[in-house]
């Protein structure tokens, strides 16, 4: 019989595991946020695809994800192999060691001179990117509630994840400013195409290095023999059980609104800063996102403390209110220093969203385990990935609407009207604030409050004899 002290020590997360696992966030952020920051600007400003073509490609991409993400999630939950290092999640991550870094370069190598060929290439390459990224990300993310089973473990590792996430975001948003001198192609210098390709190579190299560190020090899975002892739901049973979980769907809708904002900011800031704030320095443009993500670090630490007192649901509600308020001033802002100060407050609200989303999804998965006697992280994260991809359609429709209705069907830096400026300001204020207001409504409907979560965790500890 273990003593309470021995049980407490058993629950502590070694620093090497905590940091090693959190390093996986750097890979994740470089890949997805680097993609989000550059892909729209590249195909709109450099390749000069019309906005309706880009919108169509993103919609078709999201339809592709409707099948890709949940299928990969269900397949991951059913994986039990001794290949690729053995286990359930590790083999998937190892399998992505080469494809994910490589695709970062090929994102920026479309055929030029033919709009149709460029659009077809754009669609194919982002589908490949999403397949490789999702195969890595959902398995990495699924390990979080699987490896770290108590509140204290998740808070410890969750804090480390958010801090290292910021490092990944800094790389994704600031490094391009050193490599790409003219992000929005104002000067139409052909060397900009080469700079985007170089950036893709650098992103790929950094993803490879951080993935290797993550695999070496941050992943601990049960043996294949242990996995073989556990029954798994059939593919369709797993999907339908997940989709019937009303709590999960409510949270996923709230999450979709958050991901709308996550996607909108990096997509619009290069154009917003160039034409609303009248900036032409790539580093200063990128610094707006840097400021937000640096200020999210103290934000995460504060939200962790609030979470321990009020619970994940209530803390999420409070952080969302702060985030809504932070976007309102952008409708009036026309100078860099004002935008920079406001981004500090944006970052404070931003610090809560990813951290609290993961905690609340983990609580849903814990409750699901009590009902099904199975850990089905990847099924939940796969469906979650599908639903939040709807935010991509919302984002591109929002941006496309503003640009199309204000004279920018095709990018033209010489045609900038007051209506276009107001539209870009709206994309930085009314649009994100409105989406987060919808998120707030659904968070109010989410039933897993602090008391219920404590009951779930108590039963889970009894189930696992922890």
TrEMBL record:
GO terms for molecular function: symporter activity. The chain crosses the membrane at residues 21-47, 53-72, 92-113, 119-138, 159-178, 198-219, 248-272, 284-304, 316-333, 339-357, 378-403, 423-448. One of its GO terms (biological process) is carbohydrate transport. SUPFAM superfamilies: MFS general substrate transporter. Residues 247-466 form the Major facilitator superfamily (MFS) profile domain. PANTHER family: MAJOR FACILITATOR SUPERFAMILY (MFS) PROFILE DOMAIN-CONTAINING PROTEIN, MAJOR FACILITATOR SUPERFAMILY DOMAIN-CONTAINING PROTEIN. This is MFS transporter. It comes from Promethearchaeum syntrophicum. The lineage of its organism: Archaea, Promethearchaeati, Promethearchaeota, Promethearchaeia, Promethearchaeales.
């Amino acid at each position: 019989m273990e003593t309470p002290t021995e049980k407490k020590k058993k629950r502590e997360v070694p620093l090497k595991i905590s940091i090693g696992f959190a390093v996986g966030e750097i890979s994740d952020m470089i890949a997805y946020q680097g993609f989000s920051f550059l892909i729209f600007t590249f195909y709109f400003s450099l390749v000069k695809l019309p906005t309706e073509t880009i919108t169509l490609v993103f919609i078709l991409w999201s339809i592709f994800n409707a099948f890709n993400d949940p299928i990969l999630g269900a397949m991951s939950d059913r994986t039990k192999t001794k290949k690729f290092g053995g286990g359930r999640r590790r083999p998937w991550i190892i399998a992505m060691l080469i494809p994910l870094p490589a695709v970062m370069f090929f994102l920026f190598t479309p055929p030029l001179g033919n709009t149709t060929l460029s659009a077809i290439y754009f669609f194919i390459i982002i589908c490949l990117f999403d397949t490789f990224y999702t195969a890595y990300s959902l398995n990495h993310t699924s390990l979080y509630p699987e490896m770290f089973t108590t509140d204290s473990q998740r808070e410890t590792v969750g804090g480390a994840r958010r801090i290292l996430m910021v490092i990944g975001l800094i790389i994704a948003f600031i490094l391009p400013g050193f490599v790409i001198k003219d992000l929005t192609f104002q000067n139409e210098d052909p060397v900009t195409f080469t700079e985007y390709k170089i950036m893709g190579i650098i992103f790929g190299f950094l993803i490879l290095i951080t993935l290797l560190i993550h695999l070496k020090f941050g992943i601990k899975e049960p043996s294949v023999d242990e996995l073989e002892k556990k029954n798994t739901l059939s593919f369709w049973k797993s999907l339908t059980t997940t989709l019937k979980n009303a709590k999960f769907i409510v949270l996923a809708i709230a999450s979709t609104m958050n991901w709308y904002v996550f996607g909108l900011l990096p997509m619009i800031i290069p154009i917003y800063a160039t034409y609303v704030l009248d900036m032409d320095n790539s580093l200063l443009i990128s610094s707006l996102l840097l400021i937000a993500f640096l200020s999210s670090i103290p934000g995460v630490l504060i939200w962790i403390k609030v979470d321990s007192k009020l619970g994940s649901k209530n803390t999420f509600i409070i952080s969302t209110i702060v985030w809504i308020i932070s976007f309102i001033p952008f409708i009036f802002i026309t100078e860099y220093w004002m935008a920079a100060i406001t981004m500090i407050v944006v970052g404070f609200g931003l610090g809560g969203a990813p951290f609290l989303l993961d905690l609340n999804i983990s609580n849903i998965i814990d409750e699901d385990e009590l009902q099904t006697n199975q850990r089905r992280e990847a099924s939940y994260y796969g469906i979650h990935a599908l639903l939040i991809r709807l935010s991509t359609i919302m984002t591109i429709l929002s941006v496309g609407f503003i640009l199309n209705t204000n004279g920018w069907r095709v990018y033209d830096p010489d045609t900038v009207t007051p209506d276009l400026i107001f539209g870009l300001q709206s994309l930085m204020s009314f649009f994100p604030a409105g989406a987060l207001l919808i998120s707030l409504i659904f968070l109010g409907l989410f039933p897993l409050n602090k008391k219920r979560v404590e009951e779930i965790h108590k039963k889970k500890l009894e189930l696992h004899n922890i």
